[in-house]
Design brief:
Length: about 260
Amino acid sequence: MNNNFKKIFTRLLVVIGVILVGFYLSRNANLYTNPNDGNKKTQREKIILSITEKKGEGFNKYKLTSKGDENVIVIPYKEKFNLQEWYGGIMVIQNYQSGSPRVLWEIKSEAFKDIPQKLEVRDINNDGNNEILSWWSAGARLDANILWIFTWTGNNFTDMTPLIYQDKKVKDEDANIPKFYESIFSGREVDVKDLNSDGVNEILVTNLIPTKVDSSQPYTSSILESMKIVKIYKWNGHEYYLWKEEKLKPNDPNP
Ligand SMILES: [Ca+2]
Ligand SMILES: [Ca+2]
């Protein structure tokens, strides 16, 4: 009787284990598999396959540090299966020359519904580690640009974008990154350049202003001009902080 109970109990445990493992595997498989067609490759899979076949040829290569000699491929991708399964991501791929590339780091978020409009990899704060700068558009209606920065930390990239609401819980649960619009670096234009030639880049953000074509806005062109402000963020050794705000001169070609 006791032995029978043990057998039944053991079988029950095995069945529960198999169900749990199956559930776990199916969840992970769904992350990157086209939910509409299991045989069809996702964009992400196609990119990795192409890198594998071409051994990285034709893809943009970057270094992780200013002193490092290893090249990696940094490449954005977008998946859109339906309105619920629609997200963007960025992959950093190493070991591509061997024909068996490895995804070193990746960010994937439903907040990013597209690939970045612009992607740069360089050391903006002059600490030797390169940053991935990714500019995202908030769409034609808002006409906003949003900058997300990820910095190399020696074994991974980490998000170094300051948030608009530091106290608010704004982390995207899936990707563990803040939500799209919470970046401090969001405005009509977001520029990264070294204003005082000390080797460390400043970040310039021009504010969103109502557009003249929007007839619902009562603003005159002179009021619109007076509203053009650029915020300049400076690196303090740990983070970018708001250094100063300047009013833009009318028709300033270099905000
Ligand atoms: Ca850096
Ligand atoms: Ca500077």
